[in-house]
Amino acid sequence: QVQLVESGGGLVQPGGSLRLSCATSGFTFSSYAMQWYRQAPGKERVLVAQISSAGGTYYDDFVKGRFTISRDNGQNTVYLYLNSLKPEDTAVYFCHAPRFNSWGQGTQVTVSS
């Protein structure tokens, strides 16, 4: 079955950086788009970034220019690089395989001094 496992979250100071990873299994990773969502406390889960099977990318306006999504088809892994982090980026970040509507368990990112 489809499995997604996120890692890489943590506590970081404003202006800092993190790299989130989502290791996948159970499907032909290279054939499908992948997404990162985030959910802040008391708020809805929202789409942050998407990468197509061909490598085309989309970013939410709030993260454009600061976050980068990439994929390694050899490792069946999708990454989210978070730079210039702000306190409002604090959230649980989820990996999502839209073709299968499959979610990871999430990884907490906290931006605080």
Characterise this structure.
The chain is an all-beta fold. The chain is 0% helix and 51% strand. It contains no helices and eleven strands. Strands 2, 4, 5, 6, 9, 10 and 11 form a seven-stranded mixed β-sheet that branches. The protein has a four-stranded antiparallel β-sheet with strand order 1-3-8-7, with no helix packed on it. The chain is globular and about 40 Å long.
Q: Determine Rg (CA atoms, Å).
A: 13 Å
Mean pLDDT: 97
Content of β-strand: over 45%
Shape descriptor: globular
Q: Determine the number of helices (DSSP H or I, runs of at least 4 residues).
A: 0
Q: SS-based structural class?
A: mainly beta
- Terminal residue distance: 40 Å
Helical content stands at: under 10%
DSSP E strands, number: 11
Oligomer: single chain
Order of helices and strands: EEEEEEEEEEE
- Biggest sheet overview: 7 strands, mixed
Q: Which regions are unreliable across 5 or more consecutive residues at pLDDT < 50? A: none
